[in-house]
Write a structure and sequence with these properties.
The strands form three sheets. This protein has a five-stranded mixed β-sheet with strand order 5-6-1-7-8. Strands 9, 10, 11, 12 and 13 form a five-stranded antiparallel β-sheet that branches. It has a three-stranded mixed β-sheet with strand order 3-2-4. The protein has 425 residues and is an alpha+beta fold. The chain is built from 14 helices and 13 strands. It has three domains: 9-73, MutS, DNA mismatch repair protein, domain I (3-Layer(aba) Sandwich); 76-227, Alpha-Beta Plaits, CATH 3.30.70.270; 244-387, Dna Ligase, domain 1 (2-Layer Sandwich), CATH 3.30.1490.100. It is globular and about 70 Å long. Strand 7 (134-139), helix 6 and strand 8 form a beta-alpha-beta unit. It binds a DNA duplex (18 and 18 nucleotides) through helix 8, helix 10, strand 9 and strand 12.
DNA sequence: TCTGGGGTCCTAGGACCC
DNA sequence: TCTGGGGTCCTAGGACCC
């Protein structure tokens, strides 16, 4: 058996924990740059606000119903996530942290327990320890645990806990679940399926296996088996090493000058370097992309440029990565456009422990970050760890011209002393 | 005026190897 | 008449997840 513990309306719930006055108000949280709505409390959902709606399209509705609107506060959500996960981690032998607000638990050794009662214990304890409401779904496969969790969320009769532990229960759960709500079935596949009159999870479970294998490929075949009770997706107890790391942002206002774009690109490359060091990895490739708004009606005003280069050697050094990104910008930049977004991706990652083993073909070229670079980066990370992000940065990292909008940011209640003090004051 | 960010996996086809 | 077998790597594109 697998359990899926999934936080309810996670970002909105995080905002509520430290602001009880919000408990009776609809709450929404915005994407970076305050563009779209990406989290909604139940009340906000009831107002008909859809996931991903651009704020400017529902500004009136938000005002009319006195919806509390927040910029996204990732330091807060990330920290709350790790607090939430401590409880299920303590209550089950194995946990897979699946996303910021979800975890799978291995319940296979709980044969002698009342599983529904245990699920209620998990739910109650998370709520008590963190203030975050969660739902728990349990079933013989991960995909069915997802189905169970969804039912627990949607239907109040479950009171936040749904256990699917028999053929009949599973069959009726599948019949109640639309195929597009199944984990792994997105917009395109559900279109394909409905054209074949496959409309519920039960229909998909019963569809001819060769047809599923042909049109939904190996992932779809696995999914179908999971719906039929055969577990194909094992617990993944250690997070796999990252294959790529991306830092990208939309800009608060259009950027037209090379200098401002240059600073943005340097900042993103610098952030990628920090993430690389945190991951204890080095990168061999770097991709830069820059672009205008894709929503501009004037097609001549649109531009999207992207280019990937090999780095001189696998590196996690901020200066090397920033210089590389800037050299790509020299190639991609076109004057006369109103840039709205840029990003840096580092890829071909390998563990830092392996770096430096490969020598350069040309003896006089460096093949890895120097000892000096390593020490310098260590000092920089240490200072920023102690005095806060951005306390020490390279001169080219600058956010004056392109800073994303973040007008409705809540305090970082759990990670920043200065924010708490200002709240009190 | 105004539209997110960060990831993964799979397939198909071409090109190549011995 | 008849023309091998077994692979890898790379890339672009598509689909999905939260």
């Amino acid at each position: 058996m697998f359990a899926l513990v999934d936080c309810n309306n996670f970002y909105a719930s995080c905002e509520r924990v430290f602001n009880p006055a919000l408990r009776t108000r609809p709450v929404v949280v915005l994407s970076n740059n305050d563009g779209c709505i990406i989290a909604r409390s139940e009340e906000a959902k009831a107002l008909g606000i859809k996931m991903g709606t651009p704020v400017f399209k529902c500004r009136d509705l938000l005002r009319r119903h006195k919806v509390a609107v927040f910029s996204s506060n990732y330091p807060l959500y990330g920290d709350m996530s790790s607090r939430v996960m401590m409880t299920p981690a303590a209550l089950a032998p194995d946990i897979e942290l699946y996303s910021i607000d979800e975890a799978f638990l291995d319940m296979s050794s709980f044969g002698r327990y009342d599983l529904a009662e245990y699920a209620r214990l998990i739910r109650r304890t998370v709520r008590q320890h963190t203030g975050i409401p969660v739902c728990v779904g349990m079933a013989p496969t991960k995909t069915l645990a997802k189905v169970a969790n969804r039912l627990a969320k949607k239907n109040p009769v479950y009171q936040g806990v749904c256990l699917l532990d028999g053929a009949e229960l599973i069959a009726s759960a599948l019949a109640m679940t639309k195929v597009e709500d199944v984990w792994g079935i997105g917009r395109q596949l559900s279109k394909l399926l409905s054209a074949r009159n496959i409309n519920t999870a039960a229909d998909l479970a019963a569809a001819p296996v060769p047809w599923v294998r042909k049109h939904l490929h190996i992932t779809g075949a696995r999914l179908q088996a999971e719906l039929n009770g055969t577990s194909c997706l094992p617990m993944e107890l250690v997070r796999a090493a990252k294959q790529s790391i991306c830092t990208s942002r939309s800009f608060g206002k259009s950027v037209t000058t090379f200098d401002e774009l240059h600073q943005a690109v340097a900042t993103f490359a610098g952030k990628c370097a920090v993430k690389l060091r945190k991951e204890q990895a080095v990168a061999s490739m770097l991709t830069l992309f820059i672009g205008t708004s894709p929503f501009d009606d004037n097609e001549g005003a649109r531009y999207w440029g992207t280019k990937t280069i090999s780095l001189p050697y696998p590196t996690q050094d901020s200066m090397t990565l920033i210089r590389a990104a800037q050299s790509v910008l020299d190639v991609l930049f076109r004057a006369g456009y109103a840039y709205k977004k840029a990003g840096v991706i580092v890829s071909e990652l390998s563990p830092v422990a392996l770096a430096g083993r490969t020598l350069s073909l040309f003896a006089d070229e460096a093949a890895a970050d120097s000892e000096q670079s390593k020490t310098l980066m260590q000092v920089m990370d240490g200072i920023n760890e102690r005095y806060g992000r951005g306390a020490l940065r390279l001169a080219s990292e600058n956010s004056v011209g392109w800073k994303p909008n973040q007008d409705r940011l809540s305090p970082s209640y759990t990670t920043r002393w200065s924010d708490i003090i200002s709240v009190k004051g």
